[in-house]
# Entry
Amino acid sequence: MPDGVEKAGQLPGKVADKGKDVVTDITISIIDYDKQSYSERQALDVEECFTPKEKNNVRWIDVDMLTDPSVIERIGQHYHLHPLLREDITEMGQRPKIEEFEDYLFIICKMLSYDDLIEEIKFEQLSIILTKDAVITFGERPGDVFEPVRDRIRNDKGLIRSEDPSFLVYSLLDIIVDNYYLVLENLSDRIEEIEDKVVENPSPKILSKVHNLKVEMITLRKAVWPLRDVVAHMERCGSPLLSDTTRIYLHDIYDHTIQVMDSVETYRDILAGLLDIYISTISNRLNEIMKFLTIVGTIFIPLTFIAGVYGMNFRLMPEIEQWWGYPMALFIMALTAGAMIWYIRKKGWL
Amino acid sequence: MPDGVEKAGQLPGKVADKGKDVVTDITISIIDYDKQSYSERQALDVEECFTPKEKNNVRWIDVDMLTDPSVIERIGQHYHLHPLLREDITEMGQRPKIEEFEDYLFIICKMLSYDDLIEEIKFEQLSIILTKDAVITFGERPGDVFEPVRDRIRNDKGLIRSEDPSFLVYSLLDIIVDNYYLVLENLSDRIEEIEDKVVENPSPKILSKVHNLKVEMITLRKAVWPLRDVVAHMERCGSPLLSDTTRIYLHDIYDHTIQVMDSVETYRDILAGLLDIYISTISNRLNEIMKFLTIVGTIFIPLTFIAGVYGMNFRLMPEIEQWWGYPMALFIMALTAGAMIWYIRKKGWL
Amino acid sequence: MPDGVEKAGQLPGKVADKGKDVVTDITISIIDYDKQSYSERQALDVEECFTPKEKNNVRWIDVDMLTDPSVIERIGQHYHLHPLLREDITEMGQRPKIEEFEDYLFIICKMLSYDDLIEEIKFEQLSIILTKDAVITFGERPGDVFEPVRDRIRNDKGLIRSEDPSFLVYSLLDIIVDNYYLVLENLSDRIEEIEDKVVENPSPKILSKVHNLKVEMITLRKAVWPLRDVVAHMERCGSPLLSDTTRIYLHDIYDHTIQVMDSVETYRDILAGLLDIYISTISNRLNEIMKFLTIVGTIFIPLTFIAGVYGMNFRLMPEIEQWWGYPMALFIMALTAGAMIWYIRKKGWL
Amino acid sequence: MPDGVEKAGQLPGKVADKGKDVVTDITISIIDYDKQSYSERQALDVEECFTPKEKNNVRWIDVDMLTDPSVIERIGQHYHLHPLLREDITEMGQRPKIEEFEDYLFIICKMLSYDDLIEEIKFEQLSIILTKDAVITFGERPGDVFEPVRDRIRNDKGLIRSEDPSFLVYSLLDIIVDNYYLVLENLSDRIEEIEDKVVENPSPKILSKVHNLKVEMITLRKAVWPLRDVVAHMERCGSPLLSDTTRIYLHDIYDHTIQVMDSVETYRDILAGLLDIYISTISNRLNEIMKFLTIVGTIFIPLTFIAGVYGMNFRLMPEIEQWWGYPMALFIMALTAGAMIWYIRKKGWL
Amino acid sequence: MPDGVEKAGQLPGKVADKGKDVVTDITISIIDYDKQSYSERQALDVEECFTPKEKNNVRWIDVDMLTDPSVIERIGQHYHLHPLLREDITEMGQRPKIEEFEDYLFIICKMLSYDDLIEEIKFEQLSIILTKDAVITFGERPGDVFEPVRDRIRNDKGLIRSEDPSFLVYSLLDIIVDNYYLVLENLSDRIEEIEDKVVENPSPKILSKVHNLKVEMITLRKAVWPLRDVVAHMERCGSPLLSDTTRIYLHDIYDHTIQVMDSVETYRDILAGLLDIYISTISNRLNEIMKFLTIVGTIFIPLTFIAGVYGMNFRLMPEIEQWWGYPMALFIMALTAGAMIWYIRKKGWL
# Structure
């Protein structure tokens, strides 16, 4: 079931306090870096996010587990975020989007990853705020797909340490889209599995598997399609927060989102085709069985009739009395059966 | 059945007088508020709507039960509404739309709410008129979804008391869209219910349930889709009646309508998929039964034939006379039955 | 079958002379009116259309039964109509369209009305020419849907007598679209009828009824869809022939055409859904019958086999000789039948 | 099968030499005309096309049977045609298109005509070149649909002799589109034929007829759709080769192409509906037969069982010995059969 | 399965080192040509690509087998290619696209060819770089479809030797699209084959053949559709790297891609239709067989019942004792069978 259903009648612009599943230990990690230096730490208190940092440093604040609204309120205050955005961060089921403000860019997107344990696609909404010297990310749960980016920062691989915060945003979006490919790969594997089974061993379970794949495909499309618009908007918009280098790299993500969409559309077509084949195959199989059984029945019914004739008790049945009566009856039966089998074979029914 | 069928040949621009179900007690409630003060009263006479109020106050006139055309005529006169608008207010089955005039904005939208008693989506057409110091709302029936907004005005929660009339219009539209989410949630629950039943216990009733859900989905889409355009128009249009604050908040509604549409499209896809699964499952079940019955029949038909053979009355049937005749016949029958069952099992038909 | 097939190889710009069904009595009615005065007469000769009239009067010339091409030629000459337009007026099966000329506007649209006698939608092509002081309408057959408009002129109801010719054109288009609603209402009634029957008593006749409804829906859409563009064009175009008042009123027609289209689309969806339900229901019914019959057959086949066994003529069948043989056989049969019925019930097949 | 498959690896811009079916007698007809004079002749040598003509004359060179590439090469040289155009003329399977050059316009379109003999739609690609004083047309085969245009030129009917070459191009396109109507009419007749048969006598042949009609519809659409763009381009483009009169007349063709497309879409919808009805009808019929046969079988199976019971050879079957045994057995059988028929009737299965 | 799945978490802008299938012998062929001279050689070392050449010469560097990333790195360095492009060249599964840089154009497209041996469409990604005096092409595997272009260069056929590098790019794209036609032709042949079989001998194998054709069609469309945009972009963009001659010729490719898309759409429609016919035909056939068998069964069941009646052992069955009993029974049976056959024939069931 698609999510996106919020509580009606709620005050707009107020952070949702999801009381029932409050977990106190919110995780805030702060990474400061520039070409020369790098520091990483876990913040126990939200105020640590606002400690002054040396000039030109990029600061990445990553907040997980959105259970304590006060953290978002505090960060929102510090960075002058619009109240509606604070609401957007805490409300799950948002559509990927970008909003441009004077001092910051606000991006919502979906992290997807395939969880091998529960054999399901895991969803997580990610909010990214890009200011002129910091990037703040809000995740839904602890754990994310950003480890490779952190590694690149730690080990100064690639351009990331030399570039501004917008390049960090690009790197995060890039890794998110890369994970879409992994999810796609997994979907592709499962479709291929079904493709094989449909031919060899079509069972009704395939129906619900195809249904699940379709729902997952719809989910993936709902994550990718608006992200494409987000990236296209970032490429074109004149915001000074985005460097020219970032813009060129963003086009790469744009191409990737189109490729993912292309593949999703292709898989949808293939799935629809598989469903047709499945339905046709399974109906064919059943029909073939029924045909065979009906043929068997049809051959024996006339034979039983012949036996019935000679089981009649009429006093005067001349052939009954003869020695050749019984063999003749058996012979007639064999002949009848043979004729029917020959006819059925000739017609190509068996 | 979609509504929207008016009487042909009627004079355009004249208020429809729905004579047959006139109910005299029209309900008019008037709320005046600003940051400092707040007053609420029920008007018994339409003239009460036009009593002078202190400057800068926002006045919200809420008219329910559109049975007395004279009330609308009188309000229309006072606020110089175009005759065609007066007609639009009284004619049900309008498409959500916005019309911009020099002195006022005119908005038509649909209130939806799920009525648990009759297990149906309840529709109500709402006309909103925004002037520079008042908001007038015309509902179809008594009762609406605006109680949370009234509470916010009464208790000065949020921004509403500090803002101008356009913010009240935003608040009303916001609460209407929030109720779309509730309706969606209800639809989603019913779809999940069907999703479970389709697998466990597919009955023909599911067909008409899916049909009803589809019709409700179409109805919801017909309410949301044009509302999206209405909100988009309000965001972009240059009308001085809309404050900048309102415009920013309206974008939030715009996002919500897109999310609702997204979910509706997703549900449609899922419903179509469920219908396929249902049809396939029910046909599979019936086929399985027929297969089983046919197998039973097919096993006994040859046995009956063998019995028929030894029921023939030929004088000369050598095996008839022997002591081993009867056991042999039973043995042949058992053998035949066993061979057929073995063959059917081998083929995987049972 | 959609029409619109003209004779190939015909000279373009020449009025088609439909020789075979010439009816001499063409009907020309002329109404002159302004706020003060009103006159109505039947013209016997086409020249009467060109009699001078007092200044500022609006003249409405209504020509029915397009069998005499000379009438159109003559009117065309008088009002300097382009030869291709004269051709458009006489050729049926035109698509609704508007063409803007310096001195006149040319509109083609479709009058639809439901004929209760022949239970069919009646089509009539209407050509409207709007000049600065006259409106000329060409109908296909005598009889139209404009009586309410004539009444309003005669009795000076509404704005029509105070306004210019373009308001008359608006009034005509408005009444035409109102009749679309009547046709829609009729279609809606017939769909509801089918909706009920599909559940209670699905018969193959429903198939062709659904087919007819679909064809009528397509026809209605082909009349409404281009009319929407015609009205939108009239609203936007800068032609001085259209007064500002008319333009505002035209928007109302625009909204109505969109509502009609919306309903048509909805009905199409519902019809498609009904077809699915019909097919599924009828196949379910037949399957249920077959299932019942097969069960009956399957229960008796083993019983017949048992009877067959004891009908064999072996000399040595010990149980045959015993007094308890017959009751035992009957008991075994009853047991077998009971076991099968129990099994079928347990499986939920009956 | 759609055509349009050229030889890969061929040199672009070179005229295809279709060696295998060279026919030497290429047909070139030349018509010179203006308001005053008219001359028509068959050219035996391509050089005759370039003989000087009096000023202001329109020259129409019509070349059929494109087997001798040298003719096109020569004409191409004389009129300075771009090499790629020469290639376009000789390659069949082109999409209708227009290309604008400084000195000439190049148009490709499809002539369609229904051939009653082979009961098929005949295709012919036509290339039209419009220069400031000549029109050159290249047809695929001898024979075309232009006889009515030639008649008009010969007998000075309509405007054609008074107008410039672009009006001749309009006249040719007009007659081509008129022939689309004829093809449509034919398709419409065949669809109506099928519509009747589907109800009366659905046979599997209808399937392939519907398939053929669909393929022909696709073909027609592929010819009309791009032609619409061609005509729209001609209307809008600023080329001095097209006179204002021609532009006005072209709009008429534009309307016609839209009408053809409209009808094609309608027919497609109707065909799809017919296919549904056919499949449903044929499956209904077969099911009805099976139902009848199964009922017959089901009635006799219990009777046979009863007969079987009294055919058992037990020594002690009391009723066997009585005089009323036989009539009683027959009575029980009649009763059983009656009860079953009554039950089946009550259920409405027969 | 569509490809396009890259390794997630990979550093963007770094050339993928596909370690497992490194083949050392990369093939680099270099062709230098202008109107006067021509030279062709195989480069053993990548540095040979950068040897100076005489002015105004066009150099075509063709690199096959992308296993050694250092070659691309080196060429990328020499021609100042953006790091992301180097990545694009080595990553398979890219969507056809064009990127415009100051000094060069970068084009990715798909070479398709039908491999008769493995009866499959072979894919190869081709990257083209156009600089002001050189064209560099990177293929996936040895072997390409460019031999006709090389021939034209070697033998100075057509314009190629007289034109600039952009004309070489045009020639390569032209030959690639020509190969799409060949693939289309092959698909068309296979569809026609299926079209014949569907009518004569529908077997379940057709289902998977249609499925394969559909997947291949999707693949072809994914190659052609974006190529159309690439060519359209080249036509319109103002890059000085493209000569005016090339631009005119490119329009020809543009037309061809649209024709290919048209045909693909047509084939998809036809395939969908064939699937419908197949499913309908196969279900008809099976139904016909079942009908025949059921008729046979139904005729014999009443006969067996009659035989059963006279097989009953009642002492008092008057007709049993008579000499005419047996013939009468046979006569009744014949009569019953005859009546049933007559009825079935009359109903037109056989």
About this structure: Residues 315 and 321 of chain D are 10 Å apart (CA to CA). The first strand of chain D starts at residue 27 and ends at 33. Residues 1-8, 14-23 of chain D have pLDDT under 50 and may be disordered. Residues 19-280 of chain D form a domain with the Beta Polymerase; domain 2 fold (CATH 3.30.460.20).
